[in-house]
C-alpha cells in the first residue's frame, strides 16, 4: 500500500517516478499487491523490470517506453548475503540440522483462515519431516483462538529477520510458501519450492521446474512426493501408499 501511496503523491507533485520490480503480474485482482502494482506501473516515468517476462507483460498493456530489463535486485542482495553471512545459530536455537527440515511460510488471507489452516495442518500430519514455520502474529492468533491442532512435526517459531531467513532457506530440504519473494530465492538457491497459490508472478522458476503451483486438489503430501521425484525413504514422507509406486522414481 505504501508503494501506490508514494506513487500517487509523486505523480501529483510532478516528482520523477521510478518503479523497481515493474511489470510483475499474477492476474489475481483479489491480491492487494496486484492492484498496487498495476496502478503504479501505469503512472511511472521509468519502469525497471526484474524479468524479461515482466517486460513482455507491460507491452501487452501498451507500456513500451522507458521500460528496461535490469535484473533482480532481490537476488543480488541474496547472493551478497550468501557470500558474507553464514551465522547458523538460528539452527541450533531451534534444534534444527541442515537439510533435515522443510521450511514453510504462508501469510496470505486465503491460506491463513481457520478452514484452510486446518486443511494444511491435516496434510502436514502425513509428512514425516520437520516443517519449520516462522509464524505471523495474525496467523498465530487465528490458530490459538480457534484451537487448531498443530501437527507434531510442525515447529512454529517466531518471525525471523532477513539474514536468518536466508539461513533457513539455504539449509532446508525444500520450501512450502505463498510468498512472492521466497519463490525466486528458492530458485536461486536450488531449493525445490511448492507454491501454495493458484497463480504466481514469478514465471521463470516454474519454467525451470524448480518451483510448482499447488493444485489444491491432490493430497499435499503426495503432491510434494511426486514433485521432488525421489525415493520415499530419502524424503521421509509417509503417504500411506504402496511402496511399489515409488520404486521407479528417480533420485
Report a brief summary of the structure:
By secondary structure, the protein is α/β, with parallel strands linked by helices. It contains twelve helices and nine strands. It has helices spanning 2-12, 32-43, 52-60, 73-84, 89-93, 114-124, 137-145, 162-171, 182-188, 204-207, 220-228, 232-235; strands spanning 18-22, 46-49, 67-69, 101-105, 130-134, 154-157, 175-177, 193-195, 211-213.
What does this structure look like?
The structure is a single chain. The protein has 251 residues and is of the alpha/beta class. Helices cover 41% and strands 14% of the residues. The strands form 2 sheets. A 6-stranded parallel sheet has the order 6-5-4-7-8-9. The chain has a 3-stranded parallel sheet with strand order 1-2-3, covered by helices on one side. Helix 1 (2-12) runs parallel beside helix 2 (32-43). The termini are far apart.
Which key terms come to mind for this protein?
alpha/beta, three-stranded parallel β-sheet, disordered C terminus, 251 residues, 12 helices
Indicate the topology.
Layout: H1 2-12, E1 18-22, H2 32-43, E2 46-49, H3 52-60, E3 67-69, H4 73-84, H5 89-93, E4 101-105, H6 114-124, E5 130-134, H7 137-145, E6 154-157, H8 162-171, E7 175-177, H9 182-188, E8 193-195, H10 204-207, E9 211-213, H11 220-228, H12 232-235
Parallel strand pairs: 1-2, 2-3, 4-5, 4-7, 5-6, 7-8, 8-9
